[in-house]
Amino acid sequence: MKKALLMLLFACVLVSCFKDSDDELITQCSVPTNIQFDTTTHESVVITWEDSNVSATYTVEYGLSGFILGEGTSIAATETTVTLTGLLANTSYDVYVQSTCPDNESMPSDVTSFTTLAPLVVPQFLTNLSDLNLFSGDLADLSPSIYTFEYDLNTPLFTDYAHKQRLIALPPGTTMEHVDNGLPNFPDNTVIAKTFYYFNDERDESLGTKIIETRLLIKQSGEWQLGNYKWNDAQTEAVLDATSTTVPVTFINDTGETNNINYKIPSATDCFTCHSNSTQVVPIGPKLRSMNMNNQLQDLIDLNMFSNLTDASGISTLPNWEDDLTYTLEERARAYFDVNCAHCHSPGGNCYPTSNLDFRFETRFSDTNIDVHAASIQARTQSVPLIPGYSMPLIGTSIMHPEGFAVIDAYIDSL
Predict the structure, then answer these.
(1) pLDDT value of position 54
(2) Which residues form the signal peptide (predicted)?
(3) What b-and-e string marks burial along 55-86, b requiring 16 or more CB atoms within 10 Å of the CB?
(4) Which of 76, 136, 168, 235 matches a 20 to 30 Å C-alpha distance to 326?
(5) Is the separation of the CB atoms in 64 and 93 below 8 Å?
(6) Strand, helix or coil for residue 6
(7) pLDDT score at 383
(8) Predicted confidence band of residue 25 (pLDDT cuts 50, 70, 90)
(9) Alpha helices in 73-149 (DSSP H)
């Protein structure tokens, strides 16, 4: 009985492979192979495949990874490529491709999968920092989005010994424009972010951090806008807040000494005081000469983030004020002044023209008036405790910077 059933089944298969009219063999439609995913973005992907069939069309079925075949989204294609759009960011999808020949259909291909890229950075001041997509994963990890560039400065601004993470996010498809050794021209919808934090113990970073604030500059319609996000105690979120707040911070430095800081988060007015020049908001940190260190600027160039700069060798480098082996005392002190003081003490700055000091590094010494105000500079940068309205800088720090003052003091004494 079993033998008879097998013979009958064989006969049915054999008959099915011939046309009823002329008994010609019908070639089975082959399954598409070598499915590839190209040009994947946060919302789209280009799919290509290989196929040996003649005059075939195709059905591509896709859905969230693990979907049941037949319950996904299907689209038709006449070529061995198709573009999927409207996808969810940072999401894994499964894909099947099936060929349709003139006389029959192939079996669906084996499942293949792809994952879309992370969501784009949002150049808006939304309520919660997490909604801007500047970071991926847990917010407290400060893992930068793939659309950002993390940078450092040869001589950074002093802010009560806080560590800082600096990010630039350009809109997709845009570039910066080189102007000179200073700030480049940034395209609209650029986001510049700086996050301030402390290690609980400088001797062992694995003991965790306390993140205080994330300051943002966003360029909108040709003008920079300021915003500040304050982190909660749980380190799970930061919220947009224009008011000033004092945050007590305790940390152990690299020599084992316990430090207590009353860290002051600036108000929107405070931010504008330092970031204004001729009444316009401007960035302070990401000048090309400040970023030209450790091949960092060349990396930006190699990533095609500049429209008109191909070689960083023509850009000057701001000295590292702590490097007493490479730079002179004057170079170190002038670099410190440039980063910590020049945004206010320069033409167009908040202290101009009340003060005729010009602390920009590129200003000739004879035009800085440093020698004229030498005694005042020493007195106003060494005040302990700080005297509101007198101690320099006026805002941005709650303590005197002993190491920085030592360089300033030695330089002034050398004049």
Answers:
(1) 87
(2) 1-21
(3) ebebbbbbbeeebeeeebeeeebeebebebee
(4) 168
(5) yes
(6) helix
(7) 84
(8) confident
(9) none
Angle at CA 217, nearest 5°, toward 215 and 221? 155
Neighbouring CB atoms inside 10 A of 253's CB total 14
* CA neighbor of 134 nearest in space, from 27, 261, 229: 229
Q: Per residue in 361-388, pLDDT tens?
A: 999 999 999 999 999 999 999 988 889 8
Residue 325 CB partners (closer than 8 Å, separation 6+): none
What does residue 281 show for φ and ψ, rounded to 5 degrees?
A: -70, 135
Residue environment code for 149-176, b if the CB has 16+ CB neighbours within 10 A, otherwise e? bebebbbbbbbbbbbebbbbbbbeeebb
All domains of the chain in start order, with CATH: 25-115 (2.60.40.10), 119-318 (no CATH), 320-415 (no CATH)
Query: Distance between CA atoms of 42 and 187, rounded to whole angstroms?
Result: 21
Cβ-contact 232, 255 below 8 angstroms? no
Rounded distance, CA 56 to CA 19, Å? Answer: 19
pLDDT digits (tens, 9 = 90+) for 304-331: 999 999 999 999 999 999 999 999 999 9
- Give this prediction's pTM: 0.88
Among left, alpha and beta (phi > 0; psi -120 to 50; other), residue 42 is alpha
Alpha helices (H) in 264-340, listed in sequence order: 268-275, 288-291, 296-302, 329-340
**Where are the strands (E) in 152-208, listed by range?**
163-169, 191-199
CA distance 46 to 80: 11
Q: Which residues, 6 or more positions from 235, have their beta carbon under 8 angstroms from its beta carbon?
A: 139, 140, 209, 210, 211
Kindly tell me the sign of the dihedral angle through the C-alpha atoms of 270, 342, 164, 219: positive
How crowded is residue 94: how many other Cβ atoms within 10 Å of its Cβ?
18
Q: Where are the alpha helices (DSSP H) in 1-53?
A: 2-16
Q: Which residue has the tokens 């970073």?
A: 205
The single-letter DSSP state of residue 149 is: E
